[in-house]
Amino acid sequence: MNIFISNLCADTKVTQLRNLFSRFGIVKHIMIIREGRAIIPRVCGWVVMTDETEGLRAIQNLDHSRFMQQIILVNQATMLA
Fold it and tell me: What is the CA radius of gyration of the chain?
């Protein structure tokens, strides 16, 4: 399952995000994107979990939660054709 996370702290590291999501299941891949040209940098991430049920549980538990002093938004990622 592909999960999109927005409003991440600018200092977020892949290992921190992996630790957060691995509480809910096996994390296959993580990517963090930083858009540094803005006055306030935008940081988002993608997490790929191997099991859909575990991914849905992570979304339910982490959406609108506090992570590194930020309220993060966690949703199922959708692909655009």
Answer: 12
Backbone torsions φ then ψ of 59, nearest 5 degrees: -60, -50
3-state DSSP assignment of residue 57: helix
- What is 2-7+15-71's CATH number? 3.30.70.330
- pLDDT band for 81, please (50, 70, 90 cuts): very low
**Model pTM?**
0.88
Cα distances (angstroms) measured from residue 27 to each of 10, 36, 37, 53, 58? 21, 26, 30, 13, 11
Delimit the domains of the chain by residue range: 2-7+15-71
Beta strands in the chain (DSSP E): 2-6, 27-35, 42-49, 65-67, 70-76
Tell me the pLDDT tens digit for each residue of 4-46.
Answer: 999 999 899 999 999 999 999 999 999 999 887 767 778 999 9
